[in-house]
């Protein structure tokens, strides 16, 4: 695990996973739906969002007393993320997730839909059962934002005149909102002052944008086996992300790239077209300007960290921010 996450111990992650296993327990053994849920529960992802929640809680005076409550919430946050991935795979008709077959390609769309819905019902139940009312309201609004982001992205598919404002609004819902919620929940549950909670929530916003923008840049890298999807899959699915949008804004950019977007909408984009599109995006500065924007969020995040109480976890968050900003 990267150094900036070492503040969250293996023992803490194990507690979070134990609560996930408890909360995700189901009566569907031997069925496709049960297999989807078991696959999700055994996922060995980096647990970034639960780790961020626990790290944010370190700024509160009641962090130790809130231990079990925090681990339950971290488990619920990760379950929310897993449910969103399952539903995303269905909508995207994605064959892969993290380089492995997606749940809907392995078990069918029906099983994936039911499993995702079952997860969301369990999240609601355990939030109420554990009396996590305030954090439950934060998370409910976050799920609403995630839905709005996905709906907004769907409305922008193959849209030649999609704007940066629409893109930022969509990724704020899809990705950023859950990062913000992790920081807000961790701070609130550990007794942070409202000022510190707001700083951490703003930091979560910067981190969310940086994570998503880096992910968009990966669609323009050469080794696509590492991210488990085909080259320029976003573009081919009509999802025009940061490098493309910034290239479009440059002089001559729209004239150069619109023909490729039109052929893409007509599903007649060739492999040669994709290569030329990538070349144009690079030549027009789409990649460079994307990094510049990421570095702008990095600068703001570093300013926020300097305003937080000085402690070890603040330094680890600073390392995380700088890692995300590294080209």
From TrEMBL:
One BP annotation, GO: isoprenoid biosynthetic process
Cofactor(s) needed for function: Mg(2+)
GO MF, one example: metal ion binding
Keyword Transferase: yes
CDD domains: Trans_IPPS_HT (cd00685)
InterPro entries, per the entry: Isoprenoid_synthase_dom_sf, Polyprenyl_synt, Polyprenyl_synt_CS
Keywords (A to Z) from UniProt: Magnesium, Metal-binding, Transferase
Keyword Magnesium: yes
Family affiliation: Belongs to the FPP/GGPP synthase family.
Name of protein: Polyprenyl synthetase
Organism of origin: Megasphaera cerevisiae DSM 20462
């Amino acid at each position: 695990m990267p150094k900036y996450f070492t503040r969250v111990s293996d023992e803490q992650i194990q507690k979070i996973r134990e609560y996930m296993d408890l909360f995700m327990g189901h009566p569907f053994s031997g069925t496709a739906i049960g297999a989807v849920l078991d696959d999700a529960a055994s996922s060995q992802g980096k647990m970034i969002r639960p780790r961020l929640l626990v790290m944010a809680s370190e700024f509160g005076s009641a962090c130790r007393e809130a231990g079990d409550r925090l681990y339950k919430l971290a488990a619920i946050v990760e379950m929310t993320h897993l449910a969103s991935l399952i539903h995303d795979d269905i909508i995207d008709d994605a064959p892969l997730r993290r380089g492995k077959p997606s749940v809907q390609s392995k078990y069918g769309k029906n099983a994936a839909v039911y499993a995702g819905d079952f997860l969301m019902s369990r999240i609601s139940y355990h939030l109420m059962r554990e009396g996590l009312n305030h954090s439950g309201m934060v998370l409910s609004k976050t799920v609403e934002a995630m839905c709005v982001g996905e709906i907004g992205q769907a409305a922008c598919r193959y849209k030649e005149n999609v704007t940066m404002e629409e893109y930022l609004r969509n990724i704020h819902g899809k990705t950023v909102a859950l990062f913000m919620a992790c920081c807000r929940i961790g701070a609130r549950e550990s007794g942070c002052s409202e000022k510190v909670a707001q700083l951490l929530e703003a930091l979560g916003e910067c981190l969310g944008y940086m994570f998503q923008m880096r992910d968009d840049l990966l669609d323009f890298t050469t080794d696509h086996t590492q991210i488990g999807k085909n080259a320029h899959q976003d573009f081919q699915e009509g999802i025009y992300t940061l490098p493309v949008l910034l290239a479009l804004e440059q002089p001559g950019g729209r004239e150069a790239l619109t023909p490729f977007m039109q052929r893409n909408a007509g599903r007649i984009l060739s492999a040669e077209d994709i290569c030329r599109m990538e070349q144009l995006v690079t030549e027009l500065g789409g990649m460079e300007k994307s990094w510049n924007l990421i570095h702008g969020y990095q600068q703001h995040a570093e300013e926020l960290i300097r305003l937080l109480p000085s402690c070890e976890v603040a330094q680890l968050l600073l390392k995380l921010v700088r890692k995300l900003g590294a080209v």
